[in-house]
Amino acid sequence: LSVMGEARMDPNLSPPDSTAQQDSLFSMTDVFLISLIVGLFTYWFFFRKKKEEVPDLPKMQTVVAPQRDSSFIEKMKKTGRNIVVFYGSQTGTAEEFANRLSKDAHRYGLRGMAADPEEYDLSDLSRLSEIDKSLAVFCMATYGEGDPTDNAQDFYDWLQEADSDLSGLRFAVFGLGNKTYEHFNAMGKYVDKRLEELGAQRIFELGLGDDDGNLEEDFITWREQFWPAVCEHFGVEATGEESSIRQYELVVQTDVNMNKVYTGEMGRLKSYENQKPPFDAKNPFLAKVTENRKLNEGGERHLMHLELDISNSKIRYESGDHVAVYPANDSSLVNQIGEILGTDLDIVMSLNNLDEESNKKHPFPCPTSYRTALTYYLDITNPPRTNVLYELAQYATDTGEQERLRKMASSAAEGKALYLSWVVEARRNILAILQDMPSLRPPIDHLCELLPRLQARYYSIASSSKVHSNSIHICAVTVEYKTKTGRVNKGVATNWLKNKVPDQNGSNSLVPMYVRKSQFRLPFKPSTPVIMIGPGTGVAPFIGFIQERAWLKQQGKEVGETVLYYGCRHEREDYLYREELANFQKEGVLTQLHVAFSRDQAEKVYVQHLLKKNKENIWKLVNEGMAHIYVCGDARNMARDVQNTFYEIVSELGNMSQPQAVDYVKKLMTKGRYSLDVWS
């Protein structure tokens, strides 16, 4: 058609009819011949293609085959497992508990496997009864304000929509939460309730672990009652096998190609040398620190403002989002562990899973050196959990030390009390335990197998992308304290960030990071008033909020009242962003600034006291102005005290009873008008 069309439009065509007909005839003949040639070529091409594709058919089949293994039922049948322990984990603890439970199973003549719900089709739960003595256990952490963890989101969505008949399913749930948060253990409670609604049979009561108390003890207490219930249900008995079972085998790499060795990457090998978006938890972006300044003018603490350059990363963020950074452990701690265990930390090795069917081939990226593993992949600063002490006990040559370790790992009241005082309250990390138990010298490969993964640290972003599209700002305070043993413990991430030097070549100015989306958002309408409450580093997201409101005002938008309640210890020591806040107030963007200096007078003054003092204004903004309330900072005390203050204000000025006032505030939360970004 295009050939004919072009011929008709050719300006050189002769006007007489006979010539036009002749040209038309030639063009039709040409088209016919061209079409014939094209047709024959096409037929030959596809015929030849089919002949070539025949040998490739088996390859297509091999690609499809592994998908059948994505059914956890098929995997369990193939490997002779009857207990599956799913975990919803954000920081690795729920995954750790799931691994411990799956390992426990062999003591009762059963076989377990830990499973990430993100990797399987959970609708297969209805088929679990096909396996004899089968049981599904769920270790579910609650994240943020009652949300599922990232890897359990699909499972949560499926549960909400599912109408499956799970009447053949036997289950138990252990939830991981924190009582300082509003929605304590919401995910564990929901999974437990929803599975029962779908007809599944609960064989042991819901466990509720509290990280604000002693999560490890809560888990052990639940676990020691859980297994007898399993034994009773299935008519099995403990085999008495309490021996340590290695999950990974050590392979020392000799004559290794160093280009194939991990040096701290989280996912893809050489991903830090060859950066490719999109950037996330498994593929962090290496951001350069362009600014690192101390914010406070005095005092013992070090409060800092950092700016990370995200140019050319395609990373997008909104005010209120979180930035996650992957820190590195202090090299002196790593070296001391190497020295005390008499190990060459630069040996390159792999820890390979002995269960060849497992999706998790290594506990951390391998092959790598012990130095890299202890620096970038393993948590060496938190007190180790009881299962680590139990496994390490076999290596203590002194019987007293061995008994002490076993006692702390036991479920006896005396053992729990000893673990609480000697490990948790004394904040003994693995190095301190090795130092205080001279006969305990485990093989470094087993220690690396047992230690949990070093997790990313999250910070509320202290900037607006409308103003700083190519940089992300962090506001943080370095953590440093003396333990009961006289040692000085330092926060891993904050002390690592403190030493990041801007504009310096090399890794000393680079921070592996990614952005995690948040529900902590400014109102859709800029004219809506906002009340922000953020003492200390809790002011971070509000710097971003105010920057954004200032930008909106510059764009000619009508911006509502912007009210900030901020608090610090001393006006002349740790008043963060004093100049910036003063400028925002001068420009008329920050319409009210109320600052509580808690220690500048005999009686301590906190943000909640200032809220009470201005209760009429607060009530007017909330009740008439439909203001949005934002609280950021400490969950244990501040957030709770602020919430109680709002109950009082609503009750008094809204003429409501206490239960009505509580209900009023809860409804504000449901409507997204009372938002929290808190930590404990």
TrEMBL record:
Keyword Oxidoreductase: yes
The organism of origin for this protein: Sakesphorus luctuosus
GO CC terms of this entry: cytosol
GO molecular function term, any single one: NADPH-hemoprotein reductase activity
Flavodoxin-like domain location: 83-227
Reported cofactor(s): FAD; FMN
Biological processes, Gene Ontology terms: response to hormone
Family annotation (Pfam families): FAD_binding_1 (PF00667), Flavodoxin_1 (PF00258), NAD_binding_1 (PF00175)
Protein name: NADPH--hemoprotein reductase
Lineage top rank: taxon: Eukaryota
Region annotation (Disordered) ranges: 1-20
Residue ranges of coiled coil: none
Transmembrane annotation, as ranges: 25-46
Annotated FAD-binding FR-type domain residues: 282-523
Keywords associated with the record: Endoplasmic reticulum, FAD, Flavoprotein, FMN, Membrane, NADP, Oxidoreductase, Transmembrane, Transmembrane helix
EC number: 1.6.2.4
